[in-house]
Amino acid sequence: MRSENAFIGFGEAGMAFAAAAARGYDRKADAAKRADFETHDVRAEDSAEAAITGAAAIFCLVTADQALEAARSGAAYLAPGACWLDMNSVAPDTKRAARDAIEAAGARYIDVAVMAPVDPAGLAVPLLVSGPHAEAGAAILSEAGFTRVRIVAGDVGAASSIKMIRSVMVKGIEALSAECALAAHAAGVEAEVIASLDASWPGADWARRFDYNLDRMIVHGTRRAAEMDEVTKTLDALGTGSAMTRGTVARQRAIGALGVAPPDGLAAKVDTILNRKAKAA
């Protein structure tokens, strides 16, 4: 079924899922992005219209802040009955607004939540699917090669609610890791702090976790901040409070904005972040 599918957005997730579709479009049309398409044997189209027209299924994998606009602008090119699989990390209300645009065009909208890092999982990443067309969406995903697809009960927004609320913890721990590691290094007590954490959580290997979490924030902090903006919307709509998540947004955005390549090792990452912050001060 690969030849009938298309990507809208071809970043890290699109490349990890490259075997699922034969063509795609990314608004970043520079030489590097063209090379990404070529490397993964996916045909780069010059427009969203060219990618979407005639596709039976469209995997939407843009940044969180572009998810709704992608659905609204892409709806005009959808064939009746085509499936728009919204795999973006956005709030339930954002997904419901995207659904309205897709269904107004006579197509089918599927809420898909990606529940783990796409690298290195690729098509084995766990996916949750919800909404009235969840069964059709799950079948498309399975036929495209995804191996861990599960339908969850509920309308559009059910799968994304699970993803968003989970991200409070996952991305929040990343932000706390950064705050703790940077402060421990600045105080000259990082070894003692890590040893104390390891004693409290045997087997957790906090040095490795700090290193991994900082790596993800340096590389993806800007994108993670956009996702956490959507988490904030989710929590505010529920009325449960979002104070901690707002702090996560700020920390993710600040580290992502440094624009540095992550060096190897925790100490080198911490030094790089602190040095860039000092220069910017």
Automatic annotation (TrEMBL):
Transmembrane feature ranges: none
Domain 6-phosphogluconate dehydrogenase NADP-binding: 6-131
Domain Phosphogluconate dehydrogenase NAD-binding putative C-terminal: 184-254
Matches recorded under Pfam families: DUF1932, NAD_binding_2
Keyword Hydrolase set for record: no
Gene3D superfamilies (alphabetical): N-(1-d-carboxylethyl)-l-norvaline Dehydrogenase, domain 2, NAD(P)-binding Rossmann-like Domain
Species per Swiss-Prot/TrEMBL record: Sphingomonas hengshuiensis
Keywords of the record: Oxidoreductase
Catalytic residue positions: 163
Protein name from the UniProt record: 6-phosphogluconate dehydrogenase
Any one Gene Ontology molecular-function term assigned to this protein's record: oxidoreductase activity
